[in-house]
């Protein structure tokens, strides 16, 4: 059931919650004070690598006539797109690199390689999702409006189809994100002219994105245009599915708690920190997998410090886990496959009416969710 008081749920008194906030703020200050040339070099190398990989992949698709060459080029293009969207676009638009004052690598100027307008996404994601994480009726990412992910959401007959909706959402993820950002901005637009301007911006971005992948690059391939077109479609679908899997593991899997709007009443910064820790989950990843996921394998750390450089999350994670141990809080993590299968179980379970035995309760807690202090499984 949805939590109405995060501190009470975690069995923490007011003094403990405030101490928790103090310790997390200390981590923030340490990272902010140590940002420098190493971090600048990291993001510049990441951008250069992604662009080189993108160019190489497109040349392989256009020039290589063999099927293995096409498959390798398509996989490389999907990887380049994933890196651009997650490690670059997502994190840059969070303002993680604004401290550099680089006009190119800045949240206000970066436009990412996907259908949505980055400025529209920033409001839906940076504000609606990160401020109201997993709050029912306020966090638009909680089921994306097409899936029931907690028993506190009313069951409807249409929920029977949500396993199929989840597959469609994964395949079309960039388009779902684009519409979500547009709808969020439409709701806050003051005038009809503002709404029209938002619509025009989205149409322009969609036209540019579709034109690039589905018209210009295929046309440049001349007689091999079908080969390039199918490669671009496949790369976009692979990128969409990968982004969907990573994000679902962070918020819809076993052990991620959901909150009632009452949890926001008089919420302090320390209580906000606690809610982020309870509402998010990590998955285990080495450096390469972390890079490909935009370092969102550290979803807990990202939600605590969304505007700190993503390359620092691996450094922050042991400190956060240690804090969880001292305050007897769960640090939810596990292998990627197991974490994702937990989200699949939740989607299938809650597609059914609550009165049926199969949906008697939300999906059981993941055995990978461990209390860091004593390696206790739930």
UniProtKB/TrEMBL annotation:
Pfam hit, one: FA_desaturase
Domain named Fatty acid desaturase: residues: 69-333
InterPro entries: FA_desaturase_dom, Fatty_acid_desaturase
Descriptive protein name: Fatty acid desaturase family protein
Organism (species): Mycolicibacterium nivoides
Species classification: Bacteria, Bacillati, Actinomycetota, Actinomycetes, Mycobacteriales
